[in-house]
Design a protein that fits this description.
Elements (H helix, E strand, L loop, with lengths): L17 H20 L6 H13 L1 E3 H8 L3 H13 L3 E5 L7 E5 L1 H10 L2 H9 L3 H19 L8
Antiparallel strand pairs: 1-3, 2-3
Length: 156
């Protein structure tokens, strides 16, 4: 087709929209995680909470919300379910009674061993190698940063 005039692409075509591709990718990847996380009795949002706690051990609800970019109202039901599974416990800070600290139980700490298989399993499910996953992650972080800090919000 080189040298021929190609039809102009519709700038509003659904299939060419980044937002549509990101939405489908997000839903699809979260759905792919479901059968991997089910044996651990975790949903994807609960898995994200556990990842933050495995990394930081103890966090306040405010800190956890900041790490996950979610508000405490969304976090509360997740924490309640994780506490019900025996993975975490909540305790008021002795320094400030308004601050609730979230920590892992022994059961929650032990779950990490099983969870260490998740990244490799997901790479296989997605048909990607480590380099591809790292490149995708870098691209996604670039998109997130750009969306959160647009260079010129007046551009249209």
């Amino acid at each position: 087709m080189h040298g021929q005039d190609l039809p102009e692409e519709d700038p509003l075509a659904l299939e060419s929209q980044v937002c549509f591709a990101l939405t489908l990718a997000s839903r699809s990847v979260i759905a792919a995680y479901r059968p991997v996380l089910e044996p651990m009795n975790l949903t994807h949002p609960q898995y994200l909470v556990m990842l933050a706690l495995w990394e930081h051990s103890t966090l306040s609800i405010k800190e956890l919300g900041r790490h996950l970019s979610i508000d405490s109202g969304t976090l509360s039901p997740l924490l309640k379910r994780l506490e019900g599974h025996g993975y975490i416990f909540r305790k008021r800070s002795p320094d400030d009674a308004r601050t609730v600290k979230i920590s892992l139980t022994e059961k929650g700490k032990e779950l990490r061993k099983e969870a260490e298989k998740v990244p490799g399993t997901m790479m296989k499910r997605l048909g990607m190698d480590e380099a591809e996953v790292r490149a995708l992650h870098a691209s996604m972080m670039k998109v997130i940063a750009a969306a959160q800090n647009p260079s010129d919000p007046g551009d249209a």
